[in-house]
């Protein structure tokens, strides 16, 4: 199969399937409904926490995250206090203690809270929720704003993993995407984290950026390997200026076309594999010793709103503006607007505003989609006849183009078809053509 012969697939707009049903299908969710879901948590249930910090010191033009620029310390302090209050509200809504096995601080730039407030947040969370002795504590960091006191705080609080945005190593590409970040700055940030005891390092890199070439992607992949990353995430830039106004600063004429994007995605994969990384699902790569590689090899890899994960906790509680939680009954998303979120929490309310209660069919389809995205394989005998019959026309079309193989009850995705996993997952999506969701290009 030649990937360049499949540009029509690459240009299709599809969900990333970090959930099913996907967020565009969420509707209004009452606080009382979410409280009812939380009240039915079994004793000693494993928990995961995601905390969203929607602040950055400057806005990168390419960014699609829910964040804003502020240097207003009073605003940050009020938000930090709201996180404390929401954590208490959630703890009180649970009928018993859940044991936290994963904590992830995302953004934005979580270190925008500052070292003192990061420490205070961890103190509050530990006081409200028991943490497993070997809980994974991870945080997203910007190498440009990483300070010594933040590094020392992360080490003291027991953080085990840090994710840093590398994106592209070339200065000209960095200038065109609005993120000046010398390579030496990233190198120093990684070195400081490792010296402080944060042994696990994730790096993000991108393709499809303005002015980017296949050689730039190869250079960035080589740097990620040289820096000793344990995991590398490879994301295609999604140009959606109608949703993210900062992207209007990027010249569309500078963006690679569909064929060039596919070449760049293939280059990233080839370069990282050549450096000893193992492919994980759609867009991740990991060293063989990394827990994610071991989970993928044993069929234990999972996928949630943060992407691929080793987290198998049945409850994910989201804290902060726009964060999404996932519990057995469904999904719950907080108020996206920071000020609205803070006001709701200060009024003593859980700040949920949107969500979706899962049906039995949703759960079956979600499981099928997750296994396809994680394992590149699925036992079709696990599906009810009605779901299987609805998926087969799409699967047979993909099979004709070599993107899947169906042998008896087993569906497998060839390794070379990894870039098109979202197409395979979409065969099991009963809601894809309903609603108003706008999605990014598949490759």
Q: How many strands?
A: 20
Taking all Cα atoms into account, the compactness measure Rg is 21 Å
On the 0 to 100 scale, the average pLDDT is: 94
> Largest beta sheet: what is the strand line-up?
10-11-9-8-7-6-5-2-14
Strand fraction band? 15-25%
**Total DSSP helices:** 14
Write structural notes for this entry.
By secondary structure, the protein is α/β, with parallel strands linked by helices. The chain is 37% helix and 22% strand. The chain is built from 14 helices and 20 strands. The strands form five sheets. A nine-stranded mixed sheet has the order 10-11-9-8-7-6-5-2-14, sandwiched between helices. It has a four-stranded antiparallel sheet with strand order 1-17-16-15, covered by helices on one side. α5 (148-156) links the parallel β6 and β7 (161-167). The longest helix is centred in the first third of the chain and has 21 residues, at 73-93. The radius of gyration is 21 Å and the shape is globular. The two termini are 16 Å apart. 46% of the residues are buried.
